[in-house]
Design goal:
Elements (H helix, E strand, L loop, with lengths): L1 H6 L3 H28 L2 E6 L4 E4 L1 H6 L13 H4 L5 H7 L3 E6 L6 E9 L5 E9 L7 H25 L13 H14 L5 E4 L6 H11 L7 E5 L5 H9 E2 L12 E2 L1 H4 L4 E5 L6 H13 L1 E2 L8 E2 L3 E6 L3 H6 L5 H7 L2 E4 L7 H19 L5 E2 L1 H9 L5 H14 L5 E2 L1 H8 L28 H19 L4 H7 L4 H13 L13
Parallel strand pairs: 6-13, 6-14, 7-10, 10-13, 15-16
Antiparallel strand pairs: 1-2, 1-5, 3-4, 4-5, 8-9, 11-12
Helix pairs in contact: 7-8, 14-16, 15-17, 18-19, 18-20, 19-20
The structure holds adenosine-5'-diphosphate (ADP) and magnesium ion (MG).
Length: 503
């Protein structure tokens, strides 16, 4: 076609055309040379995206001292993030792109090589690193976005990681020590664990501690509060959905919590609230360790450790036909009952002081001093909301606190109860407990010392003066208990006449 057209032209015109041809060809060649000279890396692949040619600098950058060694390899074997295959498969160029490498990102240009019939027979790629100064703002922008993304990923990972360890679980009474012992056992195993206890007894906190002490600690801890999610959304929440699986589904589909928790721990809070139909799917997922996202026929294998929690009476729910017995037995492999706060009298004061400490340092306030009567009132209260309620009360106390001292009236007000007309004389003070007056306590250290003295004396009283068992009940060694006791005696904080503290 070209030829016949040229044949009809005059000699002069034909000369110009040959010249044009020549220039065009030179243009192509010099374009290649220029880019090749400019670029720090040039690579040519064939139609199967195998390396046909690579220049020395580029090969060196990717660890091939001898470029010949790269010839014939799949391009991804040489350049891990290479998109040359996409270019040969689509026949379309990628004109300007940023490619991640182990060093800096690179600006790359990828062009298909077409034969006369327009078939793609290969591709050529140029990588430009620092020569293109004009692209600096673009690269800087890209770098910043990349950094932001990485930091968002880190934050997400952080929040998925356990926030608390066993040390955060305050309390040394024998019941609490038993909880911690069981929890440590749970941390050493992969078995489903069931935390049973009233609201606010620390089930979630304990889950964090178990996860953090388990071999899965570096993997995610993912929580689902079954009670907080509408029934209709629970299945998607658990198992995810394929793209466009249901009306209103995210276009890109959605990962379920099982998949998000892969390799880690899945915390199922308020499991007693789970609808029956979903219970069987959950049981299957736990037993088979595989899930099927809604609207997909894809089976995904997952490796997830289950910790479930409930404040409900599961056996009663089973008896009433509201909870599947098989799921109950599956979850109940390692049950850990968490006693309510009212049954852990000895934990109350350590909790009060530890929570106060934390609240005050967070809100930058002075730690208030509670009068003896105020402490007694806290001890008598039945705490239906357990430690969560205690924390809330203390938090309100701290932020509304005016003076330094908190008395029983204030506590009664915060608890929303009215004080009995007579002072709480029937206080649960153990025999031998010395009345600690905090009214004149000048500071936190002093208050703590007084508290410790009272605490030890009370423990001693509850164990009829037996130091070994009193020490064991509060998690101290016998020697440490003794040492503290005599120090307080020396400081006059424990009355020498005290029948248990007398030594
Ligand atoms: N033994 C404990 N030591 C310290 N804080 C606790 C303890 N138990 C519970 N808490 C605190 O009480 C609140 C409620 O605990 P959480 O674990 O959410 O209880 P649950 O899941 O049983 O309702 C949280 O702020 C938690 O940190
Ligand atoms: Mg909870």
């Amino acid at each position: 076609m070209e030829k016949s057209a040229a044949a009809m032209l005059s000699t002069e015109e034909a000369g110009v055309l040959t010249n044009y041809d020549f220039v065009a060809r030179r243009a192509m060649e010099s374009l290649f040379r220029t880019l090749e000279n400019f670029s720090e890396g040039t690579i040519v692949v064939d139609a199967q995206a195998r390396v046909v040619w690579i220049n020395q600098r580029y090969a060196t950058r990717f660890g091939f001292e001898d470029p010949q060694k790269a010839i014939g390899l799949d391009c991804e074997k040489v350049i891990p993030n290479s998109l040359m295959r996409e270019v040969v498969e689509t026949g379309r160029p990628i004109l300007l792109d940023l490619m991640e490498t182990r060093q800096d990102p690179m600006i790359v240009i990828r062009l298909p090589i077409l034969d006369d019939r327009g078939n793609c027979v290969g591709a050529v790629g140029f990588a430009l690193f620092d020569e293109l100064k004009t692209l600096t703002p673009l690269v800087a922008h890209y770098d910043r976005i990349r950094e932001e993304l990485a930091s968002a990923h880190r934050t997400l990972e952080q929040t998925r990681r356990a926030k608390y360890t066993f040390a955060s679980f305050i309390g040394n009474c024998s019941a609490t020590l038993e909880v911690k012992r069981l929890a440590r056992l749970a941390a050493q195993s992969d078995a489903p664990t069931l935390l049973l206890g009233e609201t606010g007894t620390g089930k979630e906190l304990l889950t964090h501690a178990i996860h953090a002490a388990s071999s899965r600690a570096t993997r995610p801890l993912v929580s689902v509060n079954v009670a907080a999610i509408p029934d209709t959304l629970l299945e998607v929440e658990f198992f995810g959905a394929a793209p466009g699986a249901y009306t209103g589904a995210e276009r890109k589909g959605r990962k379920g919590k099982f998949e998000l928790a892969d390799g880690g721990t899945l915390f199922l809070d308020e499991i007693g609230d789970m609808p029956l139909i979903l219970q069987s799917k959950l049981l299957r997922a736990i037993q088979e360790q595989e899930i099927e996202p809604i609207g997909s026929n894809r089976i995904i294998r997952v490796d997830v450790r289950i910790i479930a929690a409930t404040s409900a009476d599961l056996p009663a729910l089973v008896a009433a036909g509201k909870f599947r017995a098989d799921l109950y037995y599956r979850l109940n492999v390692l049950p850990i009952p968490l006693p309510p706060l009212r049954e852990r009298q000895l934990d109350l004061l350590p909790l009060v002081y530890s929570l106060l400490d934390e609240i005050c340092s967070r809100t930058e306030r002075h730690v208030p001093v509670l009068t003896q009567a105020a402490l007694q009132l806290l001890g008598q209260y039945h705490w239906p909301g357990n430690v969560r309620q205690l924390r809330n009360v203390l938090e309100r106390m701290v932020v509304t606190q005016e003076g330094r001292e908190v008395d029983e009236d204030r506590i009664a007000f915060l608890l929303g109860i009215s004080l009995p007309s007579a002072p709480p004389a029937a206080a649960p003070a153990a025999a031998g407990e010395e009345a600690v007056s905090t009214a004149d306590a000048p500071g936190y250290a002093d208050a703590m010392a007084r508290f410790e003295a009272q605490y030890l004396a009370r423990a001693l009283g509850q164990h009829a003066g037996n130091v070994a068992s009193a020490a064991a009940s509060v998690g101290l060694s016998r020697a440490a208990f003794y040492k503290k006791l005599s120090a307080h005696k020396g400081a006059g904080l424990i009355n020498a006449q005290n029948q248990w503290a007398g030594g």
